[in-house]
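Next comes this protein.

***
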Amino acid sequence: MSEEQISAFQPQSTRQPMSQRSIMSRTGWLVKNHPIGFLGGVIVLFVIFTAIFAPLIATHDPAAQKSKRLLPPSAEHWMGTDELGRDVYSRIIYASRTSLYVGVLSVALAVVLGVTTGVAAGYIGGTFDNIVMRFVDILFAFPALVLAIVITGLLGPSLTNAMIAIGVVFSPRFARVARGSVLSVKNEVYLEAARVIGGKQWHIVRLYVLPNILAPLIVLATLTLSLGILAEAGLSFLGLGTQPPDPAWGLMLSQGRKFMELSPGLAIFPGLAIMVTVLAFNFLGDGLRDALDPRLKL
């Protein structure tokens, strides 16, 4: 049975790409009805722009050490210098690369692990579903940051191991959401029709199940990005993530807290960068939820 024959049973909304007018109308609705979500999107784009063009935006070499240590903000050093004479502003700019790198790749790992597990459990069902979801419940029983610390401690402190730990810790979220979404569409008429005419299971899952469960997964991925950035900052703060001399907001915060009385900016500026970025992703996630959920839109 060809894919073209099966596609006749697919809902129209999943087969036709969104038109430019529809995209503009959704964007206008988001700006009008959820300005916080639009603001979050603008800040996220700014952070991405900063990470991509960090060599052009930074004013100094982030690793260059000078004799002028613990200087206050000035025209030469916009956010002062740290205990080794390095420019704080340039290090914060370059640290955005680390946060986005870990956040995006760790969430991508969580999506692959969680969605694959959740879709398989929900679609196959039965004993397999029970075994898989009980294992997911065990992972949920541990606090996310504590489990990430344990995994990173076992693997060894490094940026790559922190990324793996964060991805494993957040994968149960996607597994549970994917399973619930699959159960909600598993018995739809178009899926039954595809099975009756002999559609292969993999084609049914790829063509009809996954497109109809993407909306909640996109929202969850956006919200999890903020948690991934926050988890990376926490691991780096504890010395289990990014290692010196590479710049990272959590690592800068950990090093700067020792000099709070002499130079408060060493801890304040990295903390503000973490707070603004995490809030921006949360705001964007809320806006996407409202834009993609027709019930909330009504």
Remarks:
- Residues 7 and 207 are 8 Å apart (CA to CA).
